[in-house]
């Protein structure tokens, strides 16, 4: 198995459906044995790259629909290299992909740099991390139970 196609053999199985405009792009894969995220590629047309002007945002298609099982979510997060070199990050980070979402996964990029940035087809624009989620039950109460911290927060435990 090559370094660029690591595949977990014990993790949950997630179905990826490739949309027509995603044809020909590699499926997301773990790029190293211990990678937490799988990179997401831009499924923009070869002849129509996306230009992101400084201060502007664009929604980048990935060409993928994911069947995330109940109990998991997808977190769309920025890539540090793009952030460091170009000021490109995800505006809504971490983006949340719900387990019942069956639309195309998209990446909302923002250009916080001072130069134009071009998103080419196949460029790895973000990464997705799959993580467990719990859905809680809500019970309204008149008073919260007491704790040692109480209402202290926002630096209440000291300055250093
Ligand atoms: O970075 C992201 C964030 C979200 N989504 C998709 C999957 C997610 O399940 C859906 C809704 O996202 P979210 O709940 O964050 O947005 P919303 O503004 O609350 O929309 P909605 O009312 O559809 O829930 O949009 C993405 O493809 N990429
Ligand atoms: Mg929502």
Automatic annotation (TrEMBL):
Give the EC number(s) under which this enzyme is classified: 3.6.1.23
This protein's cofactor list reads: Mg(2+)
Gene designation:
dut
Q: Its function?
A: This enzyme is involved in nucleotide metabolism: it produces dUMP, the immediate precursor of thymidine nucleotides and it decreases the intracellular concentration of dUTP so that uracil cannot be incorporated into DNA.
Q: What is this protein's name?
A: Deoxyuridine 5'-triphosphate nucleotidohydrolase
Instruction: Give the InterPro entries listed for this entry.
Output: dUTPase (IPR008181), dUTPase-like (IPR029054), dUTPase-like_sf (IPR036157), dUTPase_trimeric (IPR033704)
Q: Mind telling me which NCBIfam families this protein's record contains?
A: dut, PRK00601.1
Q: Name one Pfam family in it.
A: dUTPase
- Tell whether Magnesium is among the UniProt keywords: yes
Keyword Glycosyltransferase in record: no
Residues reported in the UniProt entry to bind substrate: 79-81, 92, 96-98
Name the species this protein comes from: Ollibium composti
Q: Which family does it belong to?
A: Belongs to the dUTPase family.
Q: In which pathway does it act?
A: Pyrimidine metabolism; dUMP biosynthesis; dUMP from dCTP (dUTP route): step 2/2
Per its record, the protein catalyses: dUTP + H2O = dUMP + diphosphate + H(+)
Which residues are in the dUTPase-like domain? 26-158
**Alphabetized Gene3D superfamilies for the sequence:** 2.70.40.10
Alphabetical keyword list: Hydrolase, Magnesium, Metal-binding, Nucleotide metabolism
Gene Ontology terms, MF aspect: dUTP diphosphatase activity
């Amino acid at each position: 198995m090559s370094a660029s196609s690591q595949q977990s053999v014990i993790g949950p199985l997630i179905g990826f459906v490739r949309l027509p405009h995603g044809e020909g792009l590699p499926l997301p894969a773990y790029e190293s044995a211990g990678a937490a995220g799988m990179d997401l590629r831009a499924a923009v047309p070869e002849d129509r790259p996306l230009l992101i002007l400084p201060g502007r945002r664009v929604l980048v298609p990935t060409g993928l629909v994911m069947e995330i099982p109940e109990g998991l979510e997808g977190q769309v997060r920025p890539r540090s290299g793009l952030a460091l070199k170009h000021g490109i990050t995800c505006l809504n980070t971490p983006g949340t992909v719900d387990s019942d979402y069956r639309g195309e996964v998209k990446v909302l990029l923002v250009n916080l740099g001072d130069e134009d940035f071009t998103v080419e087809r196949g460029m790895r624009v973000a990464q997705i991390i799959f993580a467990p989620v719990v859905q809680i039950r809500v019970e309204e109460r008149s008073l919260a139970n007491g704790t040692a911290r109480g209402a202290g927060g926002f630096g209440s435990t000291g300055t250093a």
